Amino acid sequence: MADFNNFKIEPHIKLNIGKAGRDGSGGEGGTILIITEDLCGTGGLIADGGNGIIGGKGGSVIVEAKRNRFRGRISAKGGKSG
After folding, report:
1. What DSSP state is assigned to residue 52?
2. Do residues 58 and 26 touch, judged by C-beta distance below 8 A?
3. Neighbouring-strand partners of residue 13
4. What's the rounded Cα separation, in Å, for the pair 32 and 13?
5. What's the pTM value of the predicted model, to 2 decimals?
6. 60: number of CA atoms within 13 Å, CB side?
7. Does 15 map to a domain?
8. What is the mean pLDDT of the chain?
9. Total number of domains constituting the chain
10. What pLDDT was estimated at residue 16?
């Protein structure tokens, strides 16, 4: 969790989910929570699940900002199965 008056995201915040574990399943995405007065930047907020025999579930990205000037990428998709 980050709690700032001004928060700039560059290049990105990424929950780096690894490849499949022992059972072949992809890791699940985590949670990114940002509470700020002013959010800006062009980076990324990424909470994707990992790939595996069974793809990991996507995580979540939660942003509370009174002023949102963020122009980057937000992603919380599931990993690929296969």
Report:
1. B
2. no
3. 45
4. 8
5. 0.78
6. 6
7. yes
8. 83
9. 1
10. 60
